[in-house]
Amino acid sequence: MGIDRFIGIDLAWAQSGARTKPNETGVAAIDTHGVVIECGWTRGLEETMSWLARTAVDGSTLAFVDAPLVVDNPAGQRPCEREVGRRYGRWKVSANSTNQSSPRRAGVLLRERLEESGWSYDDGRGGPPTGGLVFSECYPYTTLVGAAELGYDQERPTYKRRPARVQTAQWRAVRAAECDRLIGHMTGLATADPPFLLSSHPVSRQLLSEPSPQKAADYKHREDLIDALLCAWTAALWYRHGLARCQVLGADSSLPPGQAPTIIAPARLEQRRDGETRPIEGNQPLDGPSPVASRH
Predict the structure, then answer these.
(1) Model confidence at 163, in pLDDT bands (50, 70, 90)?
(2) What is the CA radius of gyration of the chain?
(3) Of the candidates 37, 165, 34, which has an alpha carbon nearest to the alpha carbon of residue 92?
(4) pLDDT tens profile 195-206
(5) pLDDT band at 284, cuts 50/70/90?
(6) What pLDDT shows up at residue 257?
(7) Residues facing residue 60 across a β-bridge
(8) How many Cα atoms are found within 13 Å in the side-chain-facing hemisphere of 275?
(9) What is the torsional sign of CA 3, 237, 260, 136?
(10) Where is this chain compositionally biased, Basic and acidic residues type (predicted)?
(11) For the whole model, what pTM was predicted?
C-alpha cells in the first residue's frame, strides 16, 4: 500500500443559489516525483466531484482541501482556527471564524459527498495515512510561512489582502508583483523533499510564462490555482515527513480518532506549541531528490 497521488483543492466556500453561478474552485494533482498530473478549475460541488473521480487513484490518493470540513461548534471559532493565530500570528497569518451559523460551508458538503463516495476524512492526529482515498483540511498560508523551503521567514506574502502600508491605487500592481515573486519561490521546490515541478504541466507552466494580471477576476483565477498547487504539495509533505515537519492544529479535541475538526499545517520549530517536536515519522521517501491576513 501507499499514497502515490496528492490532490489539492482550493474550494469556493460559498454554495451558489438558484440564480448564481458558483465561484471557481482551484484543483491540482501531483505524483510522487512532484510532476503536476492535472490542474485547473471547477465550478460547484458536482464539477469538483467529477474531477476527483477522474483524477484520484483508487486506494492511493491523499487530498488536502482549503476549506472548513468539520464544523461542530454552534458559535465562535473552531479551536484549530484559534491555533492558527496563536502559532502563526507572528508571521501575520490568522484564520476566519467558522461555526454552524456560518453561511459559507461548502467544505462540509464536500466532506459529506466524499464520504458517500468512499473517501475517508482523516484529522491527522494519528500521523499521515498509509493508503486509501483520504482527505484532510489544510490552509495554504501556513504552508507558505511554515515550510522553510519557500523562504517566507518573517511574514506571509501579500498576494491576497492589501496591507495598510499599500495605498489602494497601487494595490493591484503591488499584488501582481508579489504573486510573481511567490511563483518564483515555488519553482525552488523542484529540489525540495518532496519535490514539486511547477513547469511540468501546461496550465501550471503558464504561471511562469505569463505575468500575474491586475484585473480582479483574472487575478483571482490565478490565485485559486496557486493555492490548489500549494495544497497538493502540502499533502505530499505531510505524507513524506508527517509530524516531523507538520503539526495538527486542533489536535486536543476529545472527539474519537479521525473525527476532529483540524488543520494540518507545516511548521517550523518556533511555530509549534512550546517548541515541541513529535517523534512520529512520515512514510517512506518519495521518488525524487532528497495587517494580519486571514483565510479567504
Answers:
(1) confident
(2) 18
(3) 165
(4) 999 999 999 999
(5) very low
(6) 86
(7) 132
(8) 1
(9) negative
(10) 269-279
(11) 0.92
- Helices 168-187 + 202-209 axis angle, to 10: 120
3-state secondary structure of 193: coil
151's enclosing H/E stretch is none
Beta bridge partners of 246: 266
User: Does pLDDT of 294 surpass 60?
Assistant: no
* Residues 9 and 66: beta-carbon distance below 8 Å: yes
Residue range 81-101: mean pLDDT, rounded: 95
In terms of phi and psi (left: phi > 0; alpha: psi -120 to 50; beta: otherwise), the region of 38 is beta
Q: Which of 70, 113, 111, 126 is nearest to 259 (CA)?
A: 70
| pLDDT value of position 21 | 80
pLDDT at 290 over 60: no
Where are the chain's structural domains?
5-275
What is the Cα–Cα distance from 102 to 174, expressed in whole angstroms?
32
Q: How far apart are CA 85 and CA 141, in angstroms?
A: 11
Indicate the Cα dihedral angle 16, 263, 28, 31, nearest 10°. Answer: -160
113 or 169, greater pLDDT: 113
The per-residue pLDDT of the chain, averaged, comes to 91
Which one, of 258, 254, 272, 27, lies nearest residue 129 by Cα?
258
